[in-house]
Amino acid sequence: MRWLLMTKDIKKIIAKVANVDVTIITDETELVADLELDSMDVLDIVTELEKTYPIDIPGEAMTEFFSVEDIQLCVNELMAKND
């Protein structure tokens, strides 16, 4: 259940930063290729995620954010460490 809620929240954050409708975002959506986001946009996503969840996303993790699923997996892993 937590995974589903996180997925919805993450997609909403990405949609807001990318200025697109959340319905076009899937787990496979690529941040650069599909949404044309740049590194500053990814930083905005990370900032919003850190405000939403009790996590700190390391800088090196951001370099691995290619798709929505990559972000979901990272957030889930960091949340599990906090449990």
UniProtKB/TrEMBL annotation:
Family matches, as Pfam families: PP-binding (PF00550)
Descriptive protein name: Carrier domain-containing protein
Record-linked InterPro entries: ACP-like_sf (IPR036736), PP-bd_ACP (IPR009081)
PROSITE patterns from the UniProt entry: CARRIER
All residue ranges annotated as the Carrier domain in the record: 4-79
